[in-house]
Amino acid sequence: MTRPLIHIFGGTSDARQICVMMDIAGIDYGLSVATPAGAQQATGLRGEIVIGRMAAEEMADYLQERGAKRVIDASHPYAEQLSQNIVSACRKLGLPLIRYLRPSDIDAVEHPLIHKVATLQQACEVAANLANRILLTTGSKQLADYVAQLKGKTVLARVLPTADVLAMCESCGLSVDQIFALKGPFSADFNRAFYQFCRAEAVITKESGEQGGFKEKVEPCLSLGLPCIVICRPRQQFVGEGITQANGLAEMAQLLANVNQ
Hints:
This is Cobalt-precorrin-6A reductase. This protein is of the alpha/beta class.
């Protein structure tokens, strides 16, 4: 019996773990990542790695050409446009879609130093009222927006150590004293020492869950007395005909166990 070809979208650590599950189960798949850095994270996986962003029409054409029978969206929780494009492509082709949802513990985190917001703009408004040296642990994708919103403040950016990302930081006007090119995951002890080293007065982060080291980012803020501004995840509903949600890796494993049956 020919195994169904599954195509996965996502350069996250969760996506890699899902791919490892499929390697162990002997399930054929391909993996789409946005950047060469994402491809580096996929080193050692058995499936075909595809690099580059695709619009909905391009996705549909690619999936049809490759003969994909099923799609998994394991993209970053904040990659709203990507997820919308995946849904559109799957609906056009009539392909079943599994949307992987990274577990969240944001509702269990309450403290006067934690400020939960919905948007980048709100995060910047809160941070600007609380501090002058503001550390971003939100990645580089919207760095220019943060710099524009935090005009007059010292923006510190912890970003991936790639040439493209460093060039982006420089194009945003950040100096060598403001750029910290490091790759995680980071422990709570490392983050505590790092926050002290860069003399951060407030931290902006995202509700990245266990895989994104959310607790390891927040706990040092509380122990050091630093305000922590958390941009909460978009409240997207992935429902509809042909769409199945997998809440966490355990549920994903159960779904994959039925793929070859």
